[in-house]
Design goal:
Blueprint: H1 19-35, E1 44-45, E2 52-56, E3 63-68, H2 81-94, H3 109-121, E4 126-130, H4 133-144, E5 150-154, H5 159-164, E6 169-173, H6 178-188, E7 195-200, H7 212-221, E8 225-229, H8 244-247, E9 256-260, E10 270-274, H9 276-285, H10 287-290, H11 297-312, H12 314-334, E11 345-349, H13 353-365, E12 368-369, E13 371-373, E14 384-388, H14 395-411
Parallel strand pairs: 3-12, 5-6, 5-7, 7-8, 8-9
Antiparallel strand pairs: 1-2, 2-3, 4-10, 9-10, 11-14, 13-14
Length: about 425
């Protein structure tokens, strides 16, 4: 099989093959991709998240030291001494697991403390914890919306939001386009019991920020609620790192604030922050909450410390933004198309899926770990290399990455 002639979309459904046959065919595709040096997924780290990483090369098996620019660990809290110490203390006191689902026996005083801190951090009355960010979005939306309701989604929202809306009516609006949103709201007016507009605070593939101030005003004027997914915003934007509502001065005005703990907070899990009544309803009707064991004490302890670090060590966020400004200025000088990127996420839009694979391979060979993003994750014309920055990246790291990207960009004639 020649893997360069196919994309992941070609293996999503094959009419003449059952699941085992489909898996066998995909294995051929994956192996050919690996042999061509295009196996950029599940690269094995020996050191964990950080500005540099020891990585096992998927083709040669050798261990290479690389500049790591593919992490969501924006503030490097995965290895912060305070998060590690708090996690260790919780592990020793409460054990390795919660032992039960949160609605029954799995809620500890530590979980309650984290819920209260998250609610305060997001300017809401209360919060509910999930074991994953995907579960928080999907589980909440499935619990709230039925065929009598409608979700009005930005075209670029996260997959967890799309999956969470499978049991309800859905209408999309063009990305960050208020005229398109108003048309969707007008068509939904007086037709549905609950109208919910759902957006990402910061978009994971483009690095731009939702126009949340305009979205909230417009949605509320049509009697719709607003839910914002803060996955890539928490810890990163806003004067105190509290995310998109703080960035726009809207704390307490967004109906539902969702997010994950696995990015800027450096641990794992998810949350919904909203009013007390809705949180209580989710306790009993959100299957992802009811039927999953509560988050591990170690994760909860580390998260409490992570929120404290965000509030007491603003220099981490300042260093991240210094890096963002420096890198953005210089990547634009090289001539790369980065779309509307304005946060720690940089899409280098190449518009050629095969070229993206080859460029990513060459970057890997030169010691730069970045990710390829191809169809069907994005349209073919928007195929890209995705870069994300950390506060711990030094100027030396940034300059070396820019040097590699200049070399590779010229070699493949994209700058």
């Amino acid at each position: 099989m020649d893997s360069t002639k196919y994309s992941l979309a070609d293996f999503m459904d094959i009419p003449d093959l059952d699941i085992m046959g489909r898996a066998e065919l995909f294995a051929q595709y994956a192996e050919d991709s690996r042999q061509r040096g295009h196996a950029h997924f599940r690269r094995i780290s020996l050191t964990g998240s950080g500005p540099t990483m020891q990585v096992v090369d998927p083709l040669t098996g050798k261990v290479n030291e690389m500049i790591y620019m593919a992490s969501n660990d924006y503030l490097n809290l995965t290895k912060h001494p305070r998060t590690i110490a708090a996690g260790r203390a919780a592990l020793e006191k409460y054990g390795s697991g919660a032992g039960s689902v949160p609605l029954l026996g799995g809620t500890t005083d530590l979980h309650i403390e984290l819920e209260q801190k998250v609610a305060k951090f997001k300017g809401c009355e209360d919060a509910i914890l999930y074991t994953s960010g995907f579960g928080s979005n999907c589980g909440t939306l499935l619990a709230m919306l039925t065929d009598k309701d409608i979700a009005i989604l930005d075209l670029l929202v996260h997959a967890s939001i799309i999956d969470g809306c499978k049991n309800t009516n859905v209408r999309h609006f063009r990305h960050n386009d208020m005229q398109s949103l108003e048309r969707a709201l007008t068509k939904a007016k007086d037709k549905y019991r609950t109208k919910l507009v759902v957006v990402d605070g910061v978009y994971s593939m483009d690095g731009d920020i939702a126009k949340l101030d305009e979205i909230v005003q417009l949605a509320h004027s049509y009697g719709a609620y607003v839910m914002v997914d803060e996955a890539h915003a928490s810890g990163v934007i806003g004067p105190n790192g509290r995310g998109t509502p703080e960035h726009f001065g809207l704390e307490g005005q967004v109906d539902i604030v969702a997010g994950t703990f696995s990015k800027g907070l450096g641990v794992v899990g998810g949350f919904i922050a909203t009013n007390k009544d809705l949180v209580q309803l989710l306790h009993f009707y959100s299957r992802a909450y009811m039927f999953s064991t509560a988050p591990t004490p170690q994760a909860v302890g580390s998260l409490i410390a992570a929120l404290d670090v965000i509030e007491t060590e603003p220099e981490l966020r300042k260093q991240l933004w210094d890096n963002i400004i420096y890198f953005r200025e210089n990547i634009l000088k090289l001539g790369y198309n980065i779309g509307n990127a304005e946060t720690a996420i940089f899409p280098l839009i190449i518009a050629d899926g095969l070229k993206v694979r080859d460029m990513c391979r060459h970057c890997h060979e030169l010691g730069l770990y970045i990710n390829p993003v191809q169809y069907p994750a994005v349209p073919e014309r928007l195929s890209r290399l995705r870069i994300s920055l950390m506060s711990a990246h030094t100027r030396e790291h940034l300059d070396k990455a820019l040097e590699i990207l200049e070399h590779v960009g010229r070699e493949f004639d994209v700058i």
